[in-house]
Amino acid sequence: MEKIEKTLEQWRAMLDPEQYNVCRLKGTERPFSGKYTSTRTDGVYHCICCSAPLFDSSTKFDSGCGWPSFYAPIADSAMVEIRDTTHGMIRTEVTCASCDAHLGHVFADGPPPTGLRYCINSVCLDLVPRD
């Protein structure tokens, strides 16, 4: 996978303010506010910054947390996991392996078969429906 690198100014020019805040500054969208929180459309979720495929809709589930949740990425190589100790918590941040966009966090409280919950901000995603 080819690494995509841009300056913050270049990212700011191509993303809307909320996408920039979440993807590049590690912000978060308000719970239950994202356009993909309740979506059941069949397709593939791609990174909004670089279009890399991240999640298949078949792994999406309703966790009740307020953000789209998935039990597995489309490929292990699609994400990078980073220890996050901000806000007085110890969590695992997930970023896009291709462009380093902050996506959300992964927790060990998901359903089978993985037991994982990838809690992802909708603004980081672009759903491409299957035909």
Automatic annotation (TrEMBL):
The active site is at 119 (nucleophile). This is Peptide methionine sulfoxide reductase MsrB. It comes from Pseudomonas brassicae. Keywords: Metal-binding, Oxidoreductase, Zinc. Zn(2+) binds at residues 47, 50, 96, 99. GO terms for cellular component: cytoplasm. HAMAP family: MsrB. Belongs to the MsrB Met sulfoxide reductase family. PANTHER family: METHIONINE SULFOXIDE REDUCTASE, METHIONINE-R-SULFOXIDE REDUCTASE B1. The keyword Flavoprotein does not apply. Binds 1 zinc ion per subunit. The zinc ion is important for the structural integrity of the protein. Its cofactor is Zn(2+). It catalyses: L-methionyl-[protein] + [thioredoxin]-disulfide + H2O = L-methionyl-(R)-S-oxide-[protein] + [thioredoxin]-dithiol. GO terms for molecular function: peptide-methionine (R)-S-oxide reductase activity; zinc ion binding. The lineage of its organism: Bacteria, Pseudomonadati, Pseudomonadota, Gammaproteobacteria, Pseudomonadales. The keyword Hydrolase does not apply. It comes from the Bacteria. One of its GO terms (biological process) is response to oxidative stress. NCBIfam families: peptide-methionine (R)-S-oxide reductase MsrB.
